[in-house]
Amino acid sequence: MIINNTGVSARGALGHAEIDSTTFEHGLPSAPDRRVWPIYLAGEMCQTMNSHWGVGARDFSYLSPAQIIEQLALCRKVGANCLLNVGPLAQGGIPDYDAVALRRVGAWVALHESAIRHARPAPDIVCAGGDFMLRSPDGKVLNYFAFALPARGMAHLSAADSPALQRAVSGLKQKVRCARWLDSDEALAIAQERRSGLLAAQMTCQPCGTQLVVRVAALQVA
To answer: What percent of the chain has pLDDT over 90?
Structure first.
């Protein structure tokens, strides 16, 4: 692969015509204009677990699993990869915190494997409130990434009829047959008006004891 390492001063710069990927050093990626590129141009966000490329003995500024999950999801939104640096110890081992944090993120990825690893951006579909959709390679599934959903059993923080559970989508002309959470297979209620491309989805609270940070639903489309 040919990658132009643009540093923090020129994130996303296209550079040479033969590059395979743009880079975003310590910054969330944006989508390049792939219509003018001869290949499917990838993107990559280069991030560190702390404030160093490597181990910092007195560096306490570590990313949390929730932050890594959000950054990974937002990378996938624009078709970019998340390159996360983990500095090994002098003896070759992985620092304890890094290992635990990455296991937690790995457990989240395992619940949403198909959406994270294989789906591609769907820029023609617009979701409200920072949510977004990715399209499966065969076009039969749309993966809805929902942020900031409340959890059940937390009455002092959320309510069952919270407006945050009602999400709107525009630009969706395909017929949606059904929608289900990837982590639980629970069905979601939807209402669609295909002519206008509008869809309303009634999200559900996360089960008590669950906070996925970003929850993904699979929409089967015709």
So the answer is: 59
Specify whether 78 is located in the same domain as 133: no
Which residues form the domain of 91?
21-111
**Of 57, 80, 111, the domain-final residue:** 111
Residue 183 carries which DSSP code? T
**Domain containing residue 198: CATH number:** 2.60.40
- Compute how many other C-beta atoms are within 10 angstroms of the C-beta atom of residue 197: 16
Whole-Å CA distances, 76 to 115, 148, 175: 9, 18, 24
Copy the structure tokens of residue 58.
């007195």
Number of domains within the chain: 2
pLDDT tens profile 28-72: 888 877 777 777 788 899 999 999 888 888 999 999 999 999 999
